[in-house]
Amino acid sequence: MATNLEFIKSASGTSVSSLSVTDCFSAKYDVYTVVGRGDFTNTNAFIYLRFLDSGGSEVSGATDYAYANLVMESYASFGEDRNANADHIQRIVYSNNGNDFSFEINIYNPYDSLSYSFCQWQSGGRSSLGLVGMKSIGVLKQTATMSGIKIYNPTFTDINVSVYGVK
Amino acid sequence: MAGSLIKIDEEIVTSAVAGVTLGASNWDSSYDVYMVTFNNLGVDVDGNSIMMQVLASGSAQNTANYDRAEKILRVELAFLNQATTNQTSFFVNTDLGLGTSTSETLQGVFYLFNFNNASEYSFWTKEVNLLGSTAYARGGMGGGVYTVQEAHNGLYFFNLQGNNIASGSRFVLYGLKK
User: What residues are paired with A138 via a beta bridge?
Assistant: First the structure.
Protein backbone atom coordinates (compact mmCIF):
# COMPACT_ATOMS: atom_id res chain seq x y z
CA MET A 1 0.00 0.00 0.00
CA ALA A 2 1.31 3.43 -0.90
CA THR A 3 2.37 5.74 1.88
CA ASN A 4 1.36 9.35 2.18
CA LEU A 5 4.47 10.38 4.09
CA GLU A 6 7.17 10.56 1.44
CA PHE A 7 10.87 11.09 1.99
CA ILE A 8 12.15 13.98 -0.13
CA LYS A 9 15.77 14.49 0.81
CA SER A 10 18.25 14.81 3.64
CA ALA A 11 21.30 16.94 4.29
CA SER A 12 24.09 16.66 6.81
CA GLY A 13 27.25 18.42 7.87
CA THR A 14 30.13 18.24 10.29
CA SER A 15 31.95 21.25 11.73
CA VAL A 16 29.69 23.67 9.87
CA SER A 17 28.07 26.94 10.95
CA SER A 18 24.96 26.38 8.87
CA LEU A 19 23.10 23.74 6.94
CA SER A 20 20.86 24.44 3.95
CA VAL A 21 18.34 21.98 2.61
CA THR A 22 17.83 23.17 -0.95
CA ASP A 23 15.09 22.44 -3.48
CA CYS A 24 13.08 20.36 -1.03
CA PHE A 25 9.73 22.10 -1.59
CA SER A 26 7.60 21.61 -4.67
CA ALA A 27 4.05 21.85 -5.94
CA LYS A 28 3.58 18.19 -5.06
CA TYR A 29 2.98 18.91 -1.35
CA ASP A 30 1.37 21.59 0.82
CA VAL A 31 2.54 20.12 4.13
CA TYR A 32 6.08 19.01 5.06
CA THR A 33 7.66 17.41 8.09
CA VAL A 34 11.31 18.16 8.84
CA VAL A 35 13.21 16.18 11.44
CA GLY A 36 16.74 16.79 12.60
CA ARG A 37 19.34 16.00 15.18
CA GLY A 38 22.92 16.88 16.02
CA ASP A 39 25.09 18.75 18.45
CA PHE A 40 27.19 21.89 18.47
CA THR A 41 30.17 23.48 20.16
CA ASN A 42 28.67 26.74 21.44
CA THR A 43 27.63 27.48 25.00
CA ASN A 44 23.86 27.77 25.50
CA ALA A 45 23.00 28.75 21.93
CA PHE A 46 19.89 28.97 19.77
CA ILE A 47 19.40 27.45 16.36
CA TYR A 48 17.85 29.89 13.87
CA LEU A 49 15.90 29.22 10.69
CA ARG A 50 15.35 31.14 7.47
CA PHE A 51 13.61 30.14 4.27
CA LEU A 52 15.36 30.01 0.91
CA ASP A 53 13.55 31.69 -1.98
CA SER A 54 12.99 30.21 -5.43
CA GLY A 55 16.52 31.20 -6.42
CA GLY A 56 18.02 29.59 -3.34
CA SER A 57 18.77 32.90 -1.59
CA GLU A 58 18.10 33.48 2.09
CA VAL A 59 15.03 35.54 2.93
CA SER A 60 16.35 37.95 5.53
CA GLY A 61 14.37 41.20 5.54
CA ALA A 62 14.21 42.93 8.92
CA THR A 63 10.47 42.32 9.37
CA ASP A 64 9.94 39.22 7.24
CA TYR A 65 9.35 36.78 10.10
CA ALA A 66 7.27 36.42 13.26
CA TYR A 67 7.62 33.71 15.90
CA ALA A 68 6.44 32.66 19.34
CA ASN A 69 8.19 30.08 21.53
CA LEU A 70 6.98 28.40 24.69
CA VAL A 71 10.28 27.68 26.46
CA MET A 72 9.97 24.69 28.77
CA GLU A 73 12.99 24.37 31.05
CA SER A 74 13.30 21.48 33.46
CA TYR A 75 15.08 23.70 35.99
CA ALA A 76 12.95 26.87 35.91
CA SER A 77 9.50 28.28 35.25
CA PHE A 78 8.37 28.09 31.65
CA GLY A 79 9.18 31.16 29.60
CA GLU A 80 7.94 33.03 26.54
CA ASP A 81 9.96 34.28 23.60
CA ARG A 82 8.16 36.17 20.85
CA ASN A 83 8.72 38.67 18.09
CA ALA A 84 6.21 40.02 15.57
CA ASN A 85 8.89 41.43 13.25
CA ALA A 86 12.22 39.67 12.94
CA ASP A 87 14.76 38.82 10.26
CA HIS A 88 14.77 35.14 11.22
CA ILE A 89 12.92 32.51 13.25
CA GLN A 90 14.77 31.67 16.44
CA ARG A 91 14.92 28.96 19.07
CA ILE A 92 14.32 26.02 16.81
CA VAL A 93 16.52 24.51 19.53
CA TYR A 94 18.19 25.81 22.67
CA SER A 95 21.09 23.63 23.72
CA ASN A 96 24.66 23.59 24.92
CA ASN A 97 28.11 22.54 23.86
CA GLY A 98 28.31 18.78 23.43
CA ASN A 99 24.68 18.04 24.25
CA ASP A 100 22.60 16.38 21.58
CA PHE A 101 19.48 18.08 20.30
CA SER A 102 16.57 17.04 18.11
CA PHE A 103 13.60 18.74 16.49
CA GLU A 104 10.53 18.24 14.38
CA ILE A 105 9.12 21.07 12.23
CA ASN A 106 5.87 21.07 10.28
CA ILE A 107 5.95 23.51 7.37
CA TYR A 108 2.85 24.66 5.48
CA ASN A 109 2.43 26.24 2.04
CA PRO A 110 6.11 27.07 1.36
CA TYR A 111 5.77 26.57 -2.37
CA ASP A 112 2.49 28.45 -2.71
CA SER A 113 3.26 31.88 -4.16
CA LEU A 114 -0.13 33.18 -2.95
CA SER A 115 0.38 32.22 0.70
CA TYR A 116 2.73 33.03 3.55
CA SER A 117 4.90 30.12 4.71
CA PHE A 118 3.94 28.84 8.15
CA CYS A 119 5.76 26.50 10.51
CA GLN A 120 5.31 24.96 13.92
CA TRP A 121 7.89 22.92 15.75
CA GLN A 122 8.85 21.08 18.88
CA SER A 123 12.36 20.35 20.00
CA GLY A 124 14.52 19.10 22.80
CA GLY A 125 17.98 20.23 23.84
CA ARG A 126 20.04 20.49 26.97
CA SER A 127 21.43 23.77 28.25
CA SER A 128 24.15 23.89 30.87
CA LEU A 129 21.42 23.69 33.52
CA GLY A 130 19.18 20.95 32.15
CA LEU A 131 16.55 19.96 29.62
CA VAL A 132 14.98 22.62 27.41
CA GLY A 133 11.90 21.83 25.34
CA MET A 134 10.34 24.14 22.77
CA LYS A 135 6.79 24.31 21.47
CA SER A 136 6.63 27.00 18.86
CA ILE A 137 5.16 28.67 15.80
CA GLY A 138 6.60 30.89 13.10
CA VAL A 139 5.62 32.55 9.86
CA LEU A 140 7.41 34.04 6.89
CA LYS A 141 5.28 37.00 5.87
CA GLN A 142 5.93 36.87 2.15
CA THR A 143 3.66 35.63 -0.59
CA ALA A 144 6.36 33.94 -2.62
CA THR A 145 7.56 30.49 -3.54
CA MET A 146 10.15 29.06 -1.16
CA SER A 147 12.51 26.30 -2.23
CA GLY A 148 14.22 25.27 1.01
CA ILE A 149 15.42 26.16 4.49
CA LYS A 150 18.65 27.20 6.16
CA ILE A 151 19.42 26.26 9.76
CA TYR A 152 22.22 28.23 11.38
CA ASN A 153 23.83 30.10 14.25
CA PRO A 154 26.01 27.75 16.31
CA THR A 155 28.91 25.77 14.94
CA PHE A 156 27.54 22.30 14.50
CA THR A 157 29.78 19.40 15.43
CA ASP A 158 27.37 17.38 13.36
CA ILE A 159 23.87 17.89 12.06
CA ASN A 160 21.49 15.78 10.01
CA VAL A 161 18.15 16.99 8.64
CA SER A 162 15.53 15.06 6.65
CA VAL A 163 12.52 16.49 4.82
CA TYR A 164 9.30 14.56 4.14
CA GLY A 165 6.24 15.51 2.16
CA VAL A 166 2.78 14.79 3.59
CA LYS A 167 0.82 13.96 0.47
CA MET B 1 8.41 -1.42 3.56
CA ALA B 2 4.73 -0.64 3.16
CA GLY B 3 3.54 2.85 3.97
CA SER B 4 2.23 3.68 7.42
CA LEU B 5 0.45 6.98 6.88
CA ILE B 6 -2.58 6.28 4.73
CA LYS B 7 -4.81 8.96 3.27
CA ILE B 8 -8.49 8.25 3.93
CA ASP B 9 -10.27 11.40 2.86
CA GLU B 10 -9.49 14.85 1.50
CA GLU B 11 -11.76 17.87 1.16
CA ILE B 12 -10.73 21.01 -0.71
CA VAL B 13 -13.25 23.82 -0.64
CA THR B 14 -13.65 25.17 -4.17
CA SER B 15 -16.38 27.67 -3.35
CA ALA B 16 -17.31 28.97 0.10
CA VAL B 17 -19.47 26.54 2.07
CA ALA B 18 -21.21 26.54 5.44
CA GLY B 19 -19.60 23.30 6.58
CA VAL B 20 -17.13 20.57 5.65
CA THR B 21 -17.47 16.89 6.54
CA LEU B 22 -14.33 14.76 6.78
CA GLY B 23 -14.71 10.99 7.03
CA ALA B 24 -18.34 9.84 7.29
CA SER B 25 -18.90 7.42 4.39
CA ASN B 26 -15.16 7.56 3.64
CA TRP B 27 -14.20 6.62 7.21
CA ASP B 28 -12.02 3.52 7.57
CA SER B 29 -12.36 2.03 11.04
CA SER B 30 -9.26 -0.16 10.81
CA TYR B 31 -6.98 2.36 12.58
CA ASP B 32 -6.46 3.24 16.24
CA VAL B 33 -4.96 6.66 15.56
CA TYR B 34 -5.82 9.20 12.86
CA MET B 35 -4.11 12.38 11.74
CA VAL B 36 -5.86 15.41 10.26
CA THR B 37 -3.96 18.19 8.51
CA PHE B 38 -5.29 21.63 7.60
CA ASN B 39 -3.85 24.26 5.36
CA ASN B 40 -5.19 27.51 3.95
CA LEU B 41 -8.19 27.10 6.22
CA GLY B 42 -10.08 30.38 6.02
CA VAL B 43 -13.38 32.18 6.52
CA ASP B 44 -15.33 34.53 4.26
CA VAL B 45 -16.03 37.22 6.87
CA ASP B 46 -13.33 38.98 8.87
CA GLY B 47 -12.93 37.86 12.47
CA ASN B 48 -14.95 34.66 12.17
CA SER B 49 -13.98 31.39 13.87
CA ILE B 50 -13.99 27.77 12.75
CA MET B 51 -15.46 25.11 15.00
CA MET B 52 -15.38 21.32 14.97
CA GLN B 53 -17.78 18.56 15.99
CA VAL B 54 -17.34 14.79 15.91
CA LEU B 55 -19.53 12.59 13.71
CA ALA B 56 -21.50 9.62 15.01
CA SER B 57 -22.86 7.46 12.20
CA GLY B 58 -22.10 10.38 9.90
CA SER B 59 -24.05 12.98 11.90
CA ALA B 60 -22.40 15.95 13.63
CA GLN B 61 -22.80 15.78 17.41
CA ASN B 62 -23.86 19.05 19.07
CA THR B 63 -24.47 18.07 22.68
CA ALA B 64 -22.69 20.10 25.38
CA ASN B 65 -19.83 17.64 25.88
CA TYR B 66 -16.80 19.27 24.30
CA ASP B 67 -13.89 20.17 26.59
CA ARG B 68 -10.80 22.10 25.50
CA ALA B 69 -7.47 23.10 27.06
CA GLU B 70 -4.67 24.83 25.22
CA LYS B 71 -1.75 27.19 25.42
CA ILE B 72 -2.07 30.07 22.98
CA LEU B 73 1.20 31.44 21.66
CA ARG B 74 1.00 35.06 20.52
CA VAL B 75 3.75 36.89 18.66
CA GLU B 76 2.86 40.35 19.96
CA LEU B 77 1.35 39.70 23.40
CA ALA B 78 1.82 37.48 26.46
CA PHE B 79 0.70 33.88 25.99
CA LEU B 80 -2.69 32.70 27.19
CA ASN B 81 -4.09 29.56 28.77
CA GLN B 82 -7.60 28.80 27.55
CA ALA B 83 -9.87 26.07 28.86
CA THR B 84 -13.57 25.40 28.39
CA THR B 85 -15.88 22.58 29.40
CA ASN B 86 -19.25 21.32 28.27
CA GLN B 87 -19.39 23.27 25.05
CA THR B 88 -21.39 22.25 21.99
CA SER B 89 -18.35 22.36 19.67
CA PHE B 90 -14.55 22.72 19.73
CA PHE B 91 -12.51 25.77 18.68
CA VAL B 92 -10.18 25.05 15.77
CA ASN B 93 -8.63 28.52 15.85
CA THR B 94 -7.51 30.31 19.02
CA ASP B 95 -8.43 33.54 20.84
CA LEU B 96 -8.21 35.36 17.53
CA GLY B 97 -10.61 34.88 14.63
CA LEU B 98 -9.36 34.37 11.11
CA GLY B 99 -9.36 37.14 8.56
CA THR B 100 -9.91 37.80 4.90
CA SER B 101 -6.67 39.62 4.08
CA THR B 102 -3.54 37.93 2.69
CA SER B 103 -2.83 34.57 4.34
CA GLU B 104 -5.08 35.19 7.34
CA THR B 105 -5.61 31.44 7.43
CA LEU B 106 -5.00 28.46 9.69
CA GLN B 107 -2.62 25.52 9.27
CA GLY B 108 -2.21 22.63 11.63
CA VAL B 109 -2.42 19.01 12.70
CA PHE B 110 -4.85 17.13 14.91
CA TYR B 111 -4.31 13.55 16.07
CA LEU B 112 -7.49 11.61 16.85
CA PHE B 113 -7.71 8.79 19.42
CA ASN B 114 -10.36 6.19 20.39
CA PHE B 115 -12.75 7.22 17.63
CA ASN B 116 -13.72 3.61 16.91
CA ASN B 117 -14.12 2.64 20.55
CA ALA B 118 -17.72 3.00 21.73
CA SER B 119 -16.66 2.39 25.34
CA GLU B 120 -14.26 5.33 25.54
CA TYR B 121 -14.38 9.06 25.00
CA SER B 122 -12.87 10.38 21.78
CA PHE B 123 -9.78 12.55 22.32
CA TRP B 124 -7.68 14.70 20.01
CA THR B 125 -4.54 16.78 20.17
CA LYS B 126 -4.36 20.20 18.55
CA GLU B 127 -1.38 22.02 17.06
CA VAL B 128 -2.32 24.97 14.89
CA ASN B 129 -0.61 28.03 13.51
CA LEU B 130 -2.68 30.87 12.13
CA LEU B 131 -2.61 34.44 11.03
CA GLY B 132 -5.56 36.14 12.64
CA SER B 133 -7.80 39.00 11.57
CA THR B 134 -5.31 41.47 13.06
CA ALA B 135 -2.54 39.99 10.87
CA TYR B 136 -0.67 38.70 13.94
CA ALA B 137 0.32 35.06 14.16
CA ARG B 138 -1.04 32.70 16.79
CA GLY B 139 -0.23 29.16 17.87
CA GLY B 140 -2.68 26.86 19.59
CA MET B 141 -1.15 23.88 21.42
CA GLY B 142 -3.46 21.61 23.36
CA GLY B 143 -6.31 19.24 22.89
CA GLY B 144 -9.89 18.30 23.40
CA VAL B 145 -12.31 15.54 24.27
CA TYR B 146 -15.93 14.69 23.55
CA THR B 147 -17.23 13.20 26.77
CA VAL B 148 -19.73 10.73 25.35
CA GLN B 149 -18.97 7.03 25.15
CA GLU B 150 -19.75 6.26 21.55
CA ALA B 151 -17.96 5.51 18.30
CA HIS B 152 -17.18 8.35 15.90
CA ASN B 153 -16.50 8.30 12.21
CA GLY B 154 -15.24 11.70 11.27
CA LEU B 155 -15.35 15.43 11.86
CA TYR B 156 -17.55 18.33 10.85
CA PHE B 157 -16.16 21.86 10.52
CA PHE B 158 -18.27 25.01 10.36
CA ASN B 159 -18.19 28.77 10.78
CA LEU B 160 -19.15 29.81 14.34
CA GLN B 161 -20.80 33.00 13.18
CA GLY B 162 -22.95 31.20 10.62
CA ASN B 163 -21.00 32.43 7.63
CA ASN B 164 -18.80 30.26 5.44
CA ILE B 165 -15.54 28.37 5.26
CA ALA B 166 -13.56 30.02 2.48
CA SER B 167 -12.57 28.66 -0.88
CA GLY B 168 -9.09 27.13 -0.86
CA SER B 169 -9.44 25.55 2.59
CA ARG B 170 -7.96 22.04 2.61
CA PHE B 171 -8.63 19.21 5.08
CA VAL B 172 -6.98 15.78 4.89
CA LEU B 173 -7.67 12.71 7.03
CA TYR B 174 -5.04 9.97 7.40
CA GLY B 175 -4.90 6.68 9.26
CA LEU B 176 -1.76 5.57 11.08
CA LYS B 177 -1.32 1.94 10.25
CA LYS B 178 -1.05 -0.46 13.21
Answer: A67, A119
Write the pLDDT tens digit of every residue in A97-122.
888 999 999 999 999 999 999 999 99
The pLDDT tens digits for A141-153 are 999 999 999 999 9
Scanning A19-38 for CB atoms below 8 A from B yields: 30-31
Cβ distance B52 to B115 under 8 Å? Answer: no
A5-166 topology per CATH: Jelly Rolls (2.60.120)
What is the nearest CA distance from A6 to chain B, expressed in angstroms? 9
Task: Select from A4, A109, A137 the Cβ nearest to the Cβ of B39.
Answer: A109
State the smallest CA–CA distance between residue B140 and chain A in angstroms.
9
Domain B5-176 grouped into CATH 2.60.120: yes
Residues across chain A: 167
How far is Cα B67 from Cα B94, in angstroms, rounded to an integer? 14
Distance separating alpha carbons of residues B129 and A93, to the nearest angstrom:
18
pLDDT surpassing 60 at residue A1: no
Domain ranges in chain B are 5-176
- On whether any CB of chain A is under 8 Å from the CB of B69, the answer is no
The alpha carbons of chain A give a radius of gyration, in whole angstroms, of: 15
Q: Could you tell me which chain B residue has the CA closest to the CA of A141?
A: B103
Write down the domain spans for chain A. 5-166
With contact defined as beta carbons under 8 Å apart, do A138 and B136 qualify?
no
Structure ipTM: 0.94
Q: Which residues of A touch B40 (CB under 8 A)?
A: 30, 109, 112, 115
Give the burial string for A46-61 (b: 16+ CB within 10 Å, else e). Answer: bbbbbbbbeeeebbee
Whole-structure pTM over 0.80, yes or no?
Answer: yes
Residues A154 and A38 sit within 8 Å (Cβ to Cβ): no
